[in-house]
Amino acid sequence: MDIGYTSTRPTLAFAGAPAERRRRQPAVILCSAFAAITVALLPFAAASGPVLPGFILINQTALVAAYGLSAWVLFAQFRRSRSVPLLLIAAGTLYTAVIVVLQLLSFPGVVANGRVLGAGPQTTTWLWTFWHLGPPLCALAYVAAIRHEQPRLVRAERIMAAASIAVLFGLAAAGAAAAVSTLGLPWLPDQVTGDDYAALTSSGVGPGLQVLTLVALVAVWRTKNSRRTVLEVWISASLALLVLDNILTMAGGSRGSIGWYAGRIEAWVSAFVILWAYLHEVDALRLRAESAADEMARAENALRQAQKMEAVGRLTGGIAHDFNNLLMVATSGFDMIRRKPGDQARVVKLAEAGLEATERGAKLTRQLLGFASRAAIRPETVNPNALLLDFEPLVRRAVNEAITVHFALDPALHPARVDRTEFEAAVLNLVVNARDALPGQDGRIDITTRNAHRPTAVPLLGGTGVLPAGAYAVVSVSDNGAGMNETTRAQAFEPFFTTKEFGKGSGLGLSQIYGFTRAAGGGAAILSAPGKGTVVELWLPRPEAGATAGAAGAALTPASALRRAENGEAVLAVEDEPAVLASVVENLSDLGYQVLPARDAVEALELLRGTARVDILFSDIVMPGGMNGVQLAVEAGRLRPGLRVLLTSGYTNEALTGEHGVPVDVPVLTKPYRREELARLLKPVDQKAA
Questions:
Q1: N or C: which end of the chain has fewer CB within 10 A?
Q2: Pick the CATH number of 570-689 from 3.90.1150.10, 3.40.50.1980, 3.40.50.720, 3.40.50.2300
């Protein structure tokens, strides 16, 4: 039967993995240890050993399990590698497993009252001979098959046929050996009398078997030298242990001797080593896979951060322009207040304009910090419309004034389960890409949302793979720019692919969108043609029933009445920026608190070690001097048990938790803040202190 050979190299696996020194050492150590044991036992090999009931059954069962599992492993490796030499070893190992089963059946009183197979100990001894004949013959066949530079491989479509032939061959060879060991005894030399098998040696059968095993061992070990594989190392170890088994078995001379017992143990180890080596390689592969997975996760995090930072970089011009406008409002207002401080109505109007400008700047800063943070992805059920409306000011800042941005949002849009920052990054990347594709005048960007349903899984037209069946919220960003040809569109989602000039884009934007939509369980599609603009659609699956969409952002509600200190409580205010510290002292004093100012953690700890009253610690988190606000709070709690803490920072909560160790249950007031917000957060802390 033609099983179809080819000469293409197989995929590297256990059978083809190179045997570096660290992989050879266990085999060398194992063989050396058993060699030393063999030498030590030789003087006592002929002595009678203890009577161990059930030893034969246990030993033979263990041998069958070891050889059987090893055969299964080798056939599995053959299916991966398609290697003909490996198939020969697998068939030989299966043959050996079957021979051991047949030998077990030849022992009297083990499986049945008498012998199931054969008529006496001659059958048992000859089956032992054929068992020990199998491994060296298969090893020699393996050596002959691998002598070519490129061993022949079975074609992929013929794998099952080849494996079936090998299995049948192994079974047939074992059956033939059993037939010879039973029906052919009249023509075979006697090897045993009762339990005495000294004739095994005197007949020359045993020494001949030993020579054959040694020849096979040397042939396998010398085959490839530096290119020796892991499998070949352990085949050599198995043959070496069989050599030691033969030495002790023949030296013992009879069943039940110390040499016979020791030979059975060495034979079992010989049968087990290939299986052990495979399990060891699997464990090593698992460790390498885990390490590779960790490395991939780190690389994905770095790529995602690079994608976000690229988008931030592309926003720089628009953000600088907007901040300059905000600063202009505040600067002009302060200048006019200074020139005419007596005009109260005018002062109030200018102050309100300045506060509005600073609040807009604070909101923009918070969005940028959250967008650029390294926080872990936290999917939540949200209303995409609400996120888009909250993010709209930053979107408009990403384009120049000559481009029109139009929002058309479906009020009945499905919720979606996404990470807010990743969603904003995806939309921002699409808007910036659309901006870069538009001409200088009359450019238009449309951001739309709609619901869609797919009854069956279908490939996304111009998109990223197959879209599962279900309901989706679809967010589209379209432009009336130059569009893409088919070649560009097909490569658009690939990382680092870009059609822009050097220095104007890294090609990470659309790959971020691809990763975002796939992580959300959906997909992305690009619809474009030269001269007809581009539409990019984000397909976000609707969450399962019961999930509730959250608000786009938690807005602070101004207090109806300003909360002031009631009993002259003392606040230790810690801030390293002098102007900010002066402002904090002014606000706290105006609220009725006694204030102890400190410029850093060192000054704060000096005050805490003193006798001054301190009810609340109000500290900045990020400070110079080697101790941040969180560390200060811990030390302050040790010095003043029961002291209440309120922290403040201009960083996002995610950055504070991840990079500065702020516990999630500690209240943090985000800068910049108004006096109303300070009073609102101080009051619950104050009440706890009381």
A1: N
A2: 3.40.50.2300
